[in-house]
Amino acid sequence: MIDFLYRTVLIGVGATALLDLWAWILQRLFKVPAPNWGLVGRWFCHLTEGKVFHDDITLAHAYAFERAVGWLSHYAVGIIYAGALLAFTRPDWTSAPTLAPALAVGLITVGAGWFLLQPGMGVGIAASKRPNATRIRVLNIAGHVIFGFGLYGSALLIR
Q1: Measuring CA to CA, how many Å separate 90 from each of 46, 95, 97?
Q2: pLDDT of residue 91
Q3: Nearest-CA neighbor of 85 among 1, 3, 2, 4?
């Protein structure tokens, strides 16, 4: 069990760090705005009060340290996704990782953003309330593919 947790944390942190590197590259080269982890943290903080859906998260009550909560939540979710990958693959997957399951997890997890986080923050299902919804969706898919590659690459590094 300790080995499973150890591998889950390392793979999840590695994959999430690669996703963050991707976001940094997009920001520097293509002027794509960086994710606002403060607003994500605000959303997570409101979850503790039972509030899941907001009309507009920017108008919701702010919390101290919400940016830190957002960053911690971002990495915690990456670790949880890595745990799901390890739980649903064959027991020896980490000793001989394959790309397909990691990419599958990366793509499947787009759904959490589209059907929970984005509606919860008030931007609609799959950012449907945003004028640039298609661009956001493409960036979401690309980011989660990168995350999938990060799951695979991190597993290769620790095998």
Answers
A1: 37, 10, 10
A2: 85
A3: 4
